[in-house]
Structures are given as structure tokens and as C-alpha cells.
Amino acid sequence: MNFTGTKNYVATKDLQMAVNAAVTLQRPLLIKGEPGTGKTLLAEEVAAALGMPLMQWHVKSTTKAQQGLYEYDAVSRLRDSQLGHDQVHNIGNYIKKGKLWQAFDADQRVVLLIDEIDKADIEFPNDLLVELDKMEFDVYETGERVQAKHRPVVIITSNNEKELPDAFLRRCFFHYINFPDKHTMKAIVDVHYPEISQSLVTEAMQMFFDLREIPGLKKKPSTSELIDWLKLLMADEMPQDLLANRDPTKAIPPLYGALLKNEQDVQLLERLAFLARREGR
User: Fold this and answer.
1) How many angstroms separate the CA atoms of 93 and 72, rounded?
2) Contact in structure between 84 and 135 (CB atoms under 8 Å)
3) Would you say 132 and 171 are in contact if contact means Cβ atoms under 8 Å apart?
4) Cα–Cα distance between 253 and 211 in angstroms, integer?
5) I need a labelling partner for 52 at 20 to 30 A (CA). Which of 34, 215, 259, 270 fits?
6) Taking the mean position of all CA atoms in its chain, how far away is CA 87?
């Protein structure tokens, strides 16, 4: 098995090497990068390229590691015992398999995405050390030991919201997705919009990269936001000369709501436009 990207996903040589190294080493692949650089989408495309089913575990701030293994519904069992249901005698009826258990129990090798692991409590990664390393765990309520039938390809994403423990990092193969350069970004745009006007792409990308270089931006626009912006420019049939001959006294780009995501950045561009107008007097 060898991942080289797909028709829907442009993977750099470094990213291809990281995916294939993690598969070879049978270690989780930890992917970091700016939001919107395709970390989650990577897992979907790796699964498609390798012909494997995809299982997704989207982590939230309230997610506990135990939920990835299984959950025991003691309340339902107590209620059923009070009602005299026969199923109460089989404790397995009250155990819900988590994503890790489902991946371990699959009849074929799967890709398991653990998405945004840094959202959870700091102990979350440590609580999964043994399970991800040994690919097994015990169900204490039944005494059962669950072992992976086929070792899944594990892809873990992080937005760097908090530091991950060293013991966890040691067990992963790490890759940071750098923000695409103009050549790579052009290839990404071509994948999404093969029929788009190339002159429109050239002008829009120039404005996009100029915008990212403005110091003081709280949230730089990402790849996914450029894709959305281009879709809007095409839908509104925006004349490309409007982008090519942009006025520095009007720093905010057209349809800026696809690129800028908070009022501080809008106000920053408005101040820059005001300064440009004042200097032009």
C-alpha cells in the first residue's frame, strides 16, 4: 500500500512520505497545521486511496478516552432490573462499543480518524497510550479482552490548542502540514475548479496571499476559505479587473466574509484603508 494523493486531494511529497512511513511503522500519524489546511480531509482521502473503510471519532472538550473504548449504561440496567426484563442478566446488552472497539473489531483493516485531539482534557492522550500502542484493552465489566483483528491506520489531527504529552508524542509519527505555497495552492484550486478562469485565479490568489501577509491579523484566511471565496467570485461573475486594479484605499476585498472571520480583522483592514486614503491626499 502506497499513498500518493488522490484526484481530490493534493498531497505534497513530504505528506505522502509521512503517511506511508506511519503505515509502515504501524504507528499513529499525528497531523498538525493551521485550521483549514485539509487535516481531516486527509484521513478521508487516505482511506479512499488505500481502499479501506473510514471510521471517524470527532473529539470535543467533554470527550473522555473511555468513550472511544466503550460505555457501560448502568442506569439502563438498573431500570430494566426493576422492570424485570430478562436481558438484564447479560451485562453485554448494556455495553456500547466506542470507535476504537469498532475499529479493532472490523473484519478488514480500517482508517481510524481521531479528529482534533487537542480539544479534550490534557489527560485524554495519555489515557489512550496502551490501547494505541498494544492495540488491545480490557472490558472490566465482562472480563473480556478486546484485541484488534487488523491493526488500523490511525490518523490523529491537532490544531495546537494545547501541548500534547511527550509520552504520547513518542508513540506517533509526526507531520506538520505547512501552508501551501502558490504553486501547490494553484494545484489545489485546479482540483476543485478545473474550469475556472486562470486569470481570475491569478488575481484572486495574489490578493489572498497579500492578505495573509498583513501583520496583526488575528485569523489568517486558510485554504478552505480561499476555495469558498473563489466559488463566490464565480457565482457573482466578479470581473477579474476589479481584483487586478484593486484600490489600496479600499483594503477590504470583495465578498470579504468568506475570508475574514472576526470584526478585529475587518477593522484592521478598514484602518489600513483609511491610512492609505490619508496618505494619498
Assistant:
1) 9
2) no
3) yes
4) 9
5) 34
6) 40
Interval 58-71: pLDDT, tens: 999 999 999 999 99
DSSP state of 9: B
pLDDT digits (tens, 9 = 90+) for 215-269: 988 899 999 999 999 998 888 776 666 565 565 556 677 788 888 888 998 888 8
Distance CA(173)–CA(28), nearest Å, equals 6
In whole angstroms, give the CA distance from residue 93 to residue 275: 68
**pLDDT tens sequence across 146-178:** 999 999 999 999 988 888 999 999 999 999 999
What counts of helices (H) and strands (E) characterise the chain?
Answer: 13, 9
Q: Give the C-alpha separation, 163 to 180, whole Å.
A: 24
3-class secondary structure, 261? coil
Q: What is the DSSP letter of 60?
A: -
> What is the Cα–Cα distance from 34 to 223, expressed in whole angstroms?
9
